[in-house]
Amino acid sequence: MGFHPLKNLKDAIAAEPDEGPVLEDEEVHEDPLLERGAMEVRRMVAPQSFVVNQYHLRVGGEFCRTLWIQTYPPTVQDNWLGPLFLWQEVMDVSMFINPLETDRVLRNLRQLVNRDEAQLTVFDEQDKDRDYALERRYADNQKFIAALENDQTRAFQISIIITLRARSEAQLDAISEMLERRLSMCHISRADLRHKSGFISTLPLLDNRLSDMFAVTNMQTQGVQTMFPLTSSDIAHPTGVLLGVNMITRSNVIVDRFLQPLIANPTMAILGVPGSGKSYAAKSEMLRWNVLHGVPVIAIDPQNEYDRLCEGLGGQFVDISADSRDKINPLDFSHQVGSETNALQQKLTFMIGMVEVLLRAGSRERPPLTDYQRAILERALQALYKRHGYEIRSIQSQQSATPENMPLLGDLYDSLVRLDRISSTKDAAFHAQITPLIVGMGPYVNSGAYSGMFDHPTTVDLSSHFIVFNIQKLEDSLLPMGMYLILEFLRTALFTLRQMHSGKRRLLYVDEAQRLMDFPETSSFLDWVARTARKFNVGLTVITQNIEGFLLDANGQENRAGRAILANCATTLMLRQHANSQEVLSKAFRLSPAEAQHLATFGPGEGLLKVGDERCWVTMTNMTSPLEHRMITTNASEVAKIHREIEAADQQRQIGSGPRR
Predict the structure, then answer these.
(1) C-alpha distances in angstroms, 83 versus 227, 252, 603?
(2) Region label for 599, one of left (φ > 0), alpha (ψ between -120 and 50) or beta (otherwise)
(3) Terminus of the chain with fewer CB atoms < 10 Å: N or C?
(4) How far is it, in rounded angstroms, from Cα 443 to Cα 515?
């Protein structure tokens, strides 16, 4: 380590021996007046001293470290270095690109091809094991020679050198490790013992002082052109909502999921690890669609994250739990009044499936309902609805349906008990079939443990422009029933002939969708929605933090429903992913290895957006107004502060509304 008390940076550069090539026949003509002006500029900007050691260089008050790319990935997408150039940390990047003589390159390549061909021939004659690396190099070099001979490409020597800057040595180490992770698809080397030469190489002097190291790599035209951040796939539809900013071009990313036929369907998937910004991105999109375009939104919330947004937009927040004040009667079809379909017929089919889900809640091994049991349920349901004035063959009688004049699950239970009492002494087979139905429904009716969830009249307004179903309090054993109840409402409210013919757009968001993949009833429904949503102009959004759990079942086998759902998503937003998920992502979404590696390095709100055949790197940070951020943030400290402010405001209102003298 040495200390150089030099007066300016020019002296420091002059003191360093010239490590680059010298052109003996080059003449330098300098204007004395220009030289004096340049010297004055150098004196003004140059530091008074710098310190060099093995691991970094200190210039003035800054610590600097030079890194260079030693090896490059075999396959990359365009602008793969774009995130590096747009990185928020302070750094200097130099790219040295020197063309090579084609004749000389061809001569060397032909010699290499002849040697490889001779070696492969020896292997064949001696019956040795195949050398796949040698065969691949032989084939690649043959293609390279053909491209050079046809003037389809050129050969270049390329060097990418990066100098990082920080205020402390610890910060410099952290930034260096972050950069190495960000470019994990490459082999990054540090210029230890040569940081002074590296620092000079990244100054605007066109002087590569590291050209004698392994910092120089040969590359073709096609490889070189992918490094320039000059083009990008901008996604800016004429209609839609702002989703973020293109990380390459800094242009706005505006997406209209309903823009057919440009986009095959309005279904979207948002994937990312916890803390990557999945819910934040989803809430930003639904807020803008609802406020700017008036599109009704329905969200299934498993973590109670949508309550402030729902309250801010004046929506309906439905708490699905046994002790909730919000009730949905599973036998209620009054919200379908006015439709041309036979709502009662559909409700009978649903209730038979609902009872089957209730019976299977205690044991997943329990067999499905028999045809005899289904007939018993249908007979009891028809008689029950008839007592309330609704007949299956009369759609007109169904038009007067109201939530108050609807049978309850407890009424169905009582009907089954009466049927059993009447026939218990006459028909032993009937008694044997109806008894499991009565026993299985017991906990969910009258004074049963879960009667508060299923055995009450509907009390919520299911016609709101913004509805959130909160399932946070649902136990795992109750999740299938609660979701079956919600999905029945969605089917009867969204997927109707009236909705299809109206042309009205709607959005449905399912957060933590991997939880629903564990149950055949809910996974099959999501699969059906993903396949048919386009016909009803409904935009489904599935949000998941566990891509493996979405694509594979508990036994590690392929989850066909999960794969089918993702295959039907024309729009996919992939935020930060686990490094061990790269192989799964690459297969599921046809990502290149470089793209999959990039996804493991991004921060919150950064990711890859795929819309049809288009794709771009997008960032959604700092894209919301203070009011929007207040409604959708999930940061624990910010949420606690917001709740304290709300409580303080409530107290002030109570004081202000007190009695006056």
Answers:
(1) 11, 16, 12
(2) alpha
(3) C
(4) 24
- Report the pLDDT value the prediction gives residue 654, as an integer from 0 to 100: 74
CA atoms of 299 and 468, how far apart (whole Å)? 5
CA angle, residues 177, 181, 187, in degrees to nearest 5: 95
Q: Which helix (H) or strand (E) holds 185?
A: none
Number of C-alpha atoms within 13 angstroms, CB side, residue 638?
A: 11
| φ/ψ bin of 622: left (φ > 0), alpha (ψ from -120 to 50), beta (otherwise) | left
Which two tokens mark 451? 């009667």
DSSP lists the bridge partners of residue 254 as: 236, 242
Q: In what order do the strands lie in the sheet with 297-301?
A: 252-255, 241-246, 614-619, 606-611, 571-574, 268-271, 538-544, 506-510, 297-301, 466-470, 316-319
* pLDDT reported for residue 172: 93
- Cβ–Cβ contacts within 10 Å for residue 406, how many? 20
Closest to 257 in 3D by CA, of 537, 618, 628: 537
Which of 375, 276, 369 shows the shortest CA–CA distance to 576?
Answer: 276
Q: 382 with 428: CB under 8 angstroms?
A: no
Question: Which residue type sits at 64?
Answer: C
**Burial of 164 by CB count in 10 Å (0-12 exposed, 13-18 middle, 19+ buried)?**
buried
If one counts every other C-beta atom within 10 angstroms of the C-beta of residue 634, the result is 16
Structure tokens belonging to residue 533: 């949503």
Token pair listed for 549: 């759990």
Q: Say what the alpha-carbon torsion angle 19, 23, 29, 34 is, to the nearest 10 degrees.
A: -30
pTM reported for the whole predicted model: 0.66
**79 — alpha (psi -120 to 50), left (phi > 0) or beta?**
left
Angstrom distances, CA of residue 352 to CA of 180, 239, 259: 58, 43, 38
pLDDT tens digits for range 413-460: 999 888 888 775 567 888 888 888 888 888 888 878 888 788 888 888
Among candidate residues 482, 462, 486, 460, the one with its CA nearest the CA of residue 473 = 482
The C-alpha atoms of residue 416 and residue 549 are separated, in whole angstroms, by 40
57 contacts 51 by C-beta, under 8 angstroms: yes
User: What is the token pair recorded at 565?
Assistant: 């759902």
